[in-house]
Amino acid sequence: MPRIVDVSENTFIQHPNSQLSHYRIDDFADPWKPRETILIQHGFARTIQHWYHWVPALARRYRVIRRDLRGHGLSSHRKTTSDNIDYEYSLDTILDEIIDTLDQLGIEKVHFLGESTSGMLGEVLAAKYPHRLLSLVICSSPTHLPESALQLFAFGHADWPTACRTLGSRGWAEALMRCPGTVASDDPAYQAWWLDMISQSDCEGLAGYAEFLAKMDSRPFLKEIIVPMLILAPSRSAVMTVAMMEDVAKQVNGAKIEVIDAPGHEIFVSGAEQCQKAAISFWESLEQDK
Predict the structure, then answer these.
(1) 6, 21, 112, 236: which has the highest count of C-beta atoms within 10 A?
(2) Highest mean pLDDT of the ranges 1-15, 75-89, 98-112
(3) What is the Cα gyration radius of the chain?
C-alpha cells in the first residue's frame, strides 16, 4: 500500500486492516555507507515525541525509526468498543502491524528497542520473527502486568481501561505522575511537556490498548529467543525491580543486562546517556562479532 503523508508532513503506513501507523525516520548517516536500522517502540501512553533526545545519539550512524503504537499519538485506533468490530487488539494483530511496517518500508531486519510494555512486544517478536531482528533491547520492561500494577493503573476505577476513558488521557497521566517512581523528572516544565505529549493520544486509543496489555504475557516466549538481547534494568522503578529483569536474563540464552542507576521507571529519559551508551556498545559488539 502507498505510504501516506498529511498536510503537516507526518508520515503513515496504512495496513491491510485499514489502521494507520504514524512513524518518523531520522537518518543522518553518510549516504554512501551501509547502515543498520533501529526501530524504537515506546511504552504505554508515550509517543514518538518522548524519544526525541535519542535521535542525535543514534541517527548519525543508524537509520532510526520511531513508531506510534496502535491508539497512541497520531496512529489510528478503534473508535469505540462497537465500531470496527473486525479490528481486534490481539498479539498477532499488533505484531503483524509491526512486520507490515517493515515490509512497506522495505526493511528486512532491525535492532528492536522496546520500552516498558513494548519490551514485551519485542520479546514475542524476537521469538516469532527471529529472521526480522538483528537484536533486541528492552528497557524497563515487565514480562506481564501483575494484579498490583493493574490496580495501580486503575486509580480507583473499575479497571485500567475504564480509568483511561473516565479520566481522559491527560487526567490518567496526571494520576500516574502523582505516583513516586514513575515520571522521569520533577521539573515542572518537563512534566507540563510530558502531559501535553500524552494528551495527544485519544483516551479510547489508550483504553483499547490497555485492554490488550492487561492480558499480555511474554513469559512463555522467553526461552525461544535466539537473537542477541540486552536488558536495560531500572534501579528505582515503581513497577519493576532489578531482580525481575535478572530473572528474564536467566531465561534467554546469552542475554546481557545493564543496571541503570537513575530515578523512576522512564530511565530512557532520567538515565538517557547511560542507556544510550549501553545500547550503542551492545550494537557495536554485534558488528565486531560478524
Answers:
(1) 112
(2) 98-112
(3) 18
